[in-house]
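does this look right to u?? zinc ion version
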Amino acid sequence: MMLKHRHTLLAVVSTIATLLSSANATAHESDDHAEITASTGDRKAIEQYGLPLTLMNTIYEGQITAAEMKSLGTLGVGVSNHLNGELTAVDGIVYSIAADGTATVAPDDLQAPYMSMINFEPTRTVTITDISSFKALEQAVLDNISSANTLHVFKAKGEFSFTRLASAHGVEDENVDFFEYLGSRQMYNLEHTVGTIVGIYTPAYLGTISIPGLHFHFQNEDNTIGGHLEDIRFDKMQFDVQEVDRINVALPNVQKFRDIDMKMIQPPSGAGAGGSKKEE
Ligand SMILES: [Zn+2]
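got this back:
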């Protein structure tokens, strides 16, 4: 399975072309990317299945399983098949979050149309203070990363004075417009809750490949409640940070994706990316 290989984006594109042209994908595996690997050091890759663009094209079903997610990393964010629950991977365990916010350990055979995983190995810690909104957090993240043009993965544990979370409820209509769906999700607030934030910062120019801006999920301390982060307040928090300059993308290997007329759609941007409705 191509997810297990370390490719650059270009290599992924070439692999896709090979897959489309049929069965000699393994024959195409070459080592002409070895130099690229060496020159980019030992930074880990984000291993991703599906794209914001495939979700926006109503591909709500995929075939990556929770077992595969765990083989690809220890930290992750995504959503399960038919958008029937947000997915959060923390410390190597994948949790599925029901529409009411209840988190449970995902069964190994749970499948997803969109999931980003990484073996989280933070290289530094930044202290972020006086956050009163999602936008403020996004600005603080930008102020604290070494380049706004690379991917960064974050994890922070502590007491958050306020979080507003969104859950994903299953779609009734597999062709429902993604933005219409986003507007129909339930939101719930947690106050003074100890828990963990995990997530990814993606530069806007990669917005059709990975959710642009901050895609953060929150999970409480005993992993019973969680969701997609929409708003946040805290006084002071240490974030472990890993800069990532590589993302391996697997296309959804489902028939609907193979058949559909894929459209270029502008992803939601800014605060609550992936959670807020598209701004016209
Ligand atoms: Zn999410």
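Residues 124-247 form a domain with the 60s Ribosomal Protein L30; Chain: A; fold (CATH 3.30.1330.80). idk if thats expected tbh
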